[in-house]
Amino acid sequence: MDVIQQLGTYYSQNGGYVLQEFYRHFLMSVYGVLFAAIVGVPLGILIARYRRLSGWIFAVTNVIQTIPALAMLAVLMLVMGLGANTVILSLFLYSLLPIIRNTYTGIISIEHAYLESGKAMGMTKFQVLRMVELPLALSVIMAGLRTALVISIGITAIGTFVGAGGLGDIIVRGSNATNGTAIILAGAIPTALMAVVADLVMGWLERVLSPIKKKKKLAGAA
């Protein structure tokens, strides 16, 4: 009960600081995933077209995933210095695998009949991609973005060790303080809530964009 009271006191006295770090934490996570999506989605489409490249791409991204996050931050810090940019680049690298893999899987799992129908209608390759392949693969791609975002929120918490700020700052301050359990919780609880809410929202978008759901809506309208 004392911890809960201390937690409430901390929030009442430092609410603005917690919100500021929450916002900073969220932005770093989103930017890392966004930049990875800008690179990863086209790369996933490319290796779906030229599948011989997939082994090389997945080998590189799998190796990146095996590097501990703290070690990755330490290496990138030597190149980019302290700050949020180092964390964002790290999140970018970690987010590539789920985004590329899901984009690749979504594209190659589309039934060949849909592609042939598009070609029979006189569509160009780009039109087939834009109007057939991407809409059908979108829910799978969103699943990759969902995974990447949740992972990124967790990794961002250790960005405090390279001077990036975020909710990890609060957790570290609590771990360095005497009887700092309440302070640790003050940073850990918002981090967990952010990950849960992000997972729920991205999961909802994944279901909304599901081709099966779209087909059911069209059937109902007919």
From TrEMBL:
One of its GO terms (cellular component) is plasma membrane. The gene is opuCD. This is Glycine betaine/carnitine/choline/choline sulfate ABC transporter permease OpuCD. It comes from Bacillus tequilensis. InterPro entries: ABC_transp_perm/SBD, MetI-like, MetI-like_sf. It is a multi-pass membrane protein. Its main location: membrane. The chain crosses the membrane at residues 26-48, 55-79, 136-162, 182-205. It holds the Pfam family BPD_transp_1. SUPFAM superfamilies: MetI-like (SSF161098). Belongs to the binding-protein-dependent transport system permease family. CysTW subfamily. The keyword Transmembrane applies. Keywords: Amino-acid transport, Membrane, Transmembrane, Transmembrane helix, Transport. It comes from the Bacteria. It is found in: Cell membrane. CDD domains: TM_PBP2. GO terms for biological process: amino acid transport; glycine betaine transport; transmembrane transport. The keyword Zinc-finger does not apply.
